Amino acid sequence: MPVTEADVERRRFPATALLAAPLVLFLVFMLGYPMLSAVRLAFRDPLSGAVPSVENFRALWGDRLFWQATAGNIVIPLVSVALELVAGVGLALLLAARMPARRLVRAMVVVPFALPEIVFLAITRSILTPRGYANGVFSAFGVGPIAFLVPGRATTYATVMLVDAWHTTPVVFLIVLGGLAAIPRQIHEAAELDGARGWRHLVFITLPLLRPALVAAVLVRGLDALRIFAAPLVLAGVEGAPVLSTYAYHQWSDYGDDGAAAAASLVLASLCVAASVPLLARHAARAELL
Length: 290
Description:
This protein has 290 residues and is an all-alpha fold. It is 78% helix and 0% strand. It has a single domain, classed as MetI-like fold, CATH 1.10.3720.10. The protein has helices spanning 5-42, 55-61, 64-96, 102-114, 117-128, 133-140, 154-182, 185-193, 199-209, 211-226, 230-236, 244-253, 258-289. It is flat.
């Protein structure tokens, strides 16, 4: 009797399940259980301990800082990821071409991301203080001092966005550089023979072929940017440029309010899911068409 593919898969299943078991157990105990505990905390009444209750969410609704954090959690990632895409694509196009010391320049571009985030942010904060190196340079030209990190100001939000983009642009750069390397050189040569040069070549040839890499970069950095925490906290403090993660940390560490912190975390998780599902669905639909 011939062996079918289904029989082969059935025989492989025990070994596959055994190999996957450690990962499944890790996800259940290290991610699943904490998530369920956070959901229970979010829906527990802070006074009576009754479950379910929406008192924690009602408290968030009336908190002005929560709405500032929600707005910041939308604006900062959007601007930051947009800056990273522009800078990452530009750097990848520049450093994909043949040029002197290309490998050295590529390594220098990755340096900000190679530094531990807290070290990078501490150095950046010292540069941007009123008596820091940045204001020292501006003072030499008769400008300043500039208040880069005064809580609540537009310059503070702009500084957080720029610093976060500077730190993580190498991620987008490496993804796009890999996408450029995967494009056959014959396509570029054929396009140039047909008269597609300069901006026309970039818009109609290179960028469409880079779409899978750009989608991957948006997914990776977009979801990561929604979880932004260290940059606004270290640079501006809890209320300087609030986002949902720093708001939850503020509720837990400063007020000891586990329920409000869990509720804010649940709002952040919902925001991440809401942002990722359309992108993943669109990518899956495009993959089916191909």
